[in-house]
Design brief:
The protein is an alpha+beta fold and about 325 residues long. It has nine helices and 15 strands. The structure holds 2,5-anhydro-1,6-di-O-phosphono-D-glucitol and manganese (II) ion (2 copies).
């Protein structure tokens, strides 16, 4: 039998890979692992909502029942605030970022961005949801509070990123820029255990992933690429929580698309909380991630916390092929 390697043990072992590491990043990743277990516990209870109470109402004990995405948001904030390793947080669920004053004499140098519950419309129907996170080193003066510029760094500046998928089993996948590893939660011992070592995305996959219901709202070049996927007999898989679709693609290959539509002229997904962290992971696993306008996601300038982006992400050969379609069809205006 292989010896079990827990997330904590793995993170501490990996700290040695970084010559001047002070242990702060290690602590931060462990804290996110703890928050993930707390969120997991609540997500697992979501089906009991009719017994425990509906979000927005008071439950039997008189406490307010919260929507799960707000609950996840609060738990992550609590864990990160108490960790002492993080000087600022920005979340998809909050208008503005939260600066966290340092606990003297320590000055924390990392900021964390996250989507506390991705795919939250799936909760009521028992379909997988996830938490996505990214970690940056602050660039503002370490003496004061962190500032907006710390959060507007390009994805290429990410120090670490990851996600937790609350699926048939709960898995935490992360990268600190040296490959991607996955840890499955063993509920009997309450530990994330190394289950997917050094994940490499296949060059191609047999599925594509897009909300095909919006087909007629996509630009012609994107429609042609989707037609091509269908011509190639690729199957369609679309879960409606990006983190679940990306997890499948990471393991099995494929491409995920969220192009611009009339409703979302700049794309729907958030650059800071969704596209950048997942692009970091996918690139670390050997994949690619670009906008539907063909810029590398991780090089996109970030002007606003809640900025949206279009995205094509997944197996490298499939992203290249999509790029070739866009180049070919956008050069042929008469075809529109
Ligand atoms: P969230 O639940 O954090 O708001 O994110 C939902 C996102 C993403 O996870 C998913 O891929 C996409 O929205 C689905 O959007 P459509 O329903 O427009 O396809
Ligand atoms: Mn989301
Ligand atoms: Mn969300």
């Amino acid at each position: 039998m292989n010896r079990i390697v827990t997330l904590d043990e793995f993170i501490i072992r990996r700290q040695k890979d970084f010559p001047f590491a002070s242990g702060e990043l290690t602590g931060l990743l462990r804290d996110i692992g703890v928050a993930a277990k707390i969120v997991n516990r609540e997500v697992n209870k979501a089906g009991l909502v009719s017994i425990l109470g509906v979000a927005g109402e008071a439950n039997a004990s008189g406490d307010d029942v919260q929507k799960l995405d707000l609950y996840a948001n609060e738990k992550l904030i609590d864990c990160l605030k108490n960790s002492g390793e993080c000087c600022g947080i920005a979340s998809e669920e909050m208008e503005d970022f939260i600066p966290i004053p340092s606990l003297a004499p320590k000055t924390s140098k990392y900021i964390v961005v996250f989507d506390p519950l991705d795919g939250s419309s799936n909760i009521d129907v028992n379909v997988s949801v996830g938490t996505i996170f990214g970690i940056y080193r602050r660039i503002s003066d370490p003496e004061g509070l962190c500032s907006l510029e710390d959060f507007l760094q390009k994805g290429a500046q990410l120090v670490a990123a990851g996600y937790v998928l609350y699926g048939t089993s709960t898995i935490l996948v992360y990268s600190t820029g040296r490959g991607v590893n996955g840890f499955t939660l063993d509920p009997t011992i309450g530990e994330f255990c190394l289950s997917h070592r050094d994940i490499k995305i296949p060059a191609r996959g047999s599925h594509y992933s897009v909300n095909q219901g919006y087909y007629l709202k996509f630009d012609v070049e994107m429609r042609r690429y989707i037609d091509h996927c269908s011509d190639m007999n690729l199957g369609l898989r679309y879960i409606g929580s990006m983190v679940s679709d990306i997890h499948r693609i990471l393991l099995k290959g494929g491409i995920f698309l969220y192009p611009n539509t009339r409703k979302y002229p700049h794309g729907k997904l958030r650059l800071v909380y969704e596209c950048n962290p997942l692009s970091f992971i996918v690139e670390q696993a050997g994949g690619k991630a670009i906008t539907c306008q063909l810029e590398r996601i991780l090089d996109m300038p970030v002007e606003q916390l809640h900025q949206r982006a279009t995205i094509a992400i997944g197996s490298p050969d499939m992203v290249d092929e999509m790029k070739a379609f866009v180049e070919r069809y956008s050069a042929a205006p008469a075809m529109r």
